[in-house]
Every structure is written in structure tokens, then in C-alpha cells.
Amino acid sequence: MAAEILIAYCTRSGSTAEVAREMGRAVTDAGAVVSVKPMAEVQSIAYGQAVVLGGALYVGRFAGEAHRFIARFEQELGNGHPWIFVLGPTENDPKQFRVAEEQARKELAKFPWLHPVDVRVFGGKFDPKTLKLPFPFNLVMKFPGNPMSRVPATDIRDWDWIRSWAKAIVEHLNAVA
């Protein structure tokens, strides 16, 4: 029987959604049944369904939507040991990746009952033209001379690494089935 996997994500500007969809394609190619949904659209988690959670770090924190999702599905996630991916650095700097992993683990420590199988930090994407910030930060982006508008767009998502990790999840599930 094929593994059933839910990939639930939250995103502000679409980058994490793109990663989640690509992971979904890789999981399907590896022979699993997958459902890829924004966290806000997940109504339930089926018993025995493997879960992959995805989000980004915003100034060292997960979005509130991710916190609400994890709290809402405490029982299912606590019993199911999810995989978690985080989009973090937008520069290929090993120190930034270490810091992002520390920040992600600090955020996850707010849920002491949550024991992920794996937590992976992937490179992120930054585009000041598509950046969606919450109030009041979004106001700053509208000011002329805003320093964020001078930051160049970057995209260091490693698609081969992302697909490889997704396929490794299916291999793990098949090995323990």
C-alpha cells in the first residue's frame, strides 16, 4: 500500500508554496499518495497519514498561522512525528543556515510534545517586489527611499536537494511499513 502524505504549508509571498508543490511532485514520483495544502485549508489529519509541515522564518519566527496549526493538531502531530522544512537564508552563507536552524528549533521548542522525524532548513527566496509583510511593516515598503527596495532579489532554493529530501521521506515510510 502506498504511503499517504499530507504536505501542509504556510506562505506569505508564495515561495514556500512553490517548495511544497515541488515536494508533492517528488513524493508522487516516488510512489506515495500526497495532498498538498495551505495549513489554513487542512480540516483534519487522517490516522496514519504522514505529515510534512513547511513554513518560513520571518525575523527568526514562524508565522502565526504555523503556530496555530501546530497547536490545533497537537494530538495528531504529537503521535505522528512530522517532518518539517523551513525556508530561511537568502544567501549561501553556512553561518546563516546554522542560525536559521537554531531559530527554527527554538520556535519548535514552544511545542515540547512535538518530536519531528527531521527538521530541514532550505535556502529561501527574497523578492522585494512580491514581499508581503504584515501591518505595520507593510507601510515601510511604501515609503520612497525604503532601504528594502534596494535589496536585490535572490533565490537560493536548491530544487535537487528539496526533491531528494522529499523522496527520502517516502523511502523512510516504505522501510517502516
Helices and strands, in order, run as EHEEHHEHEEHEH
pLDDT averaged over residues: 90
> How many helix segments?
6
Percent of residues in β-strands: 15-25%
Q: Which structural category fits the helices and strands?
A: alpha/beta
Low-confidence stretches: none
Structure write-up:
The protein is of the alpha/beta class. The protein is built from six helices and seven strands, in the order βαββααβαββαβα. The strands form two sheets. The protein has a five-stranded parallel sheet, with helices on both faces. Helix 1 links the parallel strand 1 and strand 2 (33-38). Helix 1 packs across helix 6 (159-176). The protein is globular, with a radius of gyration of 17 Å. The termini are close together. The model has no long low-confidence stretch (mean pLDDT 90).
Attribute tags:
177 residues; alpha/beta; five-stranded parallel β-sheet; two-stranded antiparallel sheet; 6 helices
Q: Could you provide a short overview of the structure?
A:
This protein is α/β, with parallel strands linked by helices. It contains 6 helices and 7 strands; from the N terminus they run βαββααβαββαβα.
